[in-house]
Structures are given as structure tokens and as C-alpha cells.
Write a structure and sequence with these properties.
two-stranded antiparallel sheet
Length: 97
């Protein structure tokens, strides 16, 4: 386990990081920093704690929506695979799409 010093919204934090997980942790830090910065820059919320909570809620909502996007991508991949199989079965007679 290593430690990384990162900056989120201008404040430094030292975070524990599993070996080999540095890139993913830095990506997560960048997402949190962007989200908090966007909320701060909107100008309606000033308290860092409230900004952090709103950012956490926004990111959690995005994560909750991810399975639906993944399912849609998987459905499209399956549909593409089936179209290729039908095209192959039709052979020289033509293409389905």
C-alpha cells in the first residue's frame, strides 16, 4: 500500500492507495475535483462541505445510471452480432441491413 498526495479544490490530501492502483485513484481524484469545481463555479454553494456532499451525490447518481448504459451497450453488441449472423446466413443473397 502506497500513499499519494493529491489536491482537490485547492486543498491537499494524502490518500492510501493499493499497489498498482495509482492511475485509477488519480482518475477518481480528477473526477471529484472537476465535479466540486463545477459546483463551486456555479456560485450558488460556497461551503466546501456542502460542495463535497453535492459532488458525491452527483457522482453516485452517475454511477447508478451506469448499469443502464452498460446494458444498452451490451444489447447493441448482441444485436450487431445477430445481424452479422443473419448476413452470413443470407450469404450472396443480400444483406439484412
Amino acid at each position: 500500500m502506497s500513499q499519494l498526495e493529491v489536491t482537490i479544490l485547492g486543498q491537499s490530501y494524502v490518500l492510501a492507495c493499493p499497489d498498482g492502483g495509482e492511475r485509477e485513484l488519480l482518475e477518481a481524484v480528477a473526477m471529484v475535483d472537476r465535479e466540486m469545481g463545477a459546483i463551486r463555479d456555479a456560485g450558488k454553494v460556497k461551503a466546501r462541505e456542502r460542495i463535497a456532499v453535492l459532488a458525491a451525490l452527483n457522482l453516485a447518481y452517475q454511477l447508478a445510471q451506469a448499469p443502464a448504459r452498460d446494458d444498452a451497450q451490451a444489447d447493441q453488441a448482441e444485436l450487431d452480432r445477430l445481424v452479422r449472423r443473419i448476413d452470413h446466413a443470407l450469404g450472396g443473397d443480400g444483406r439484412l441491413l
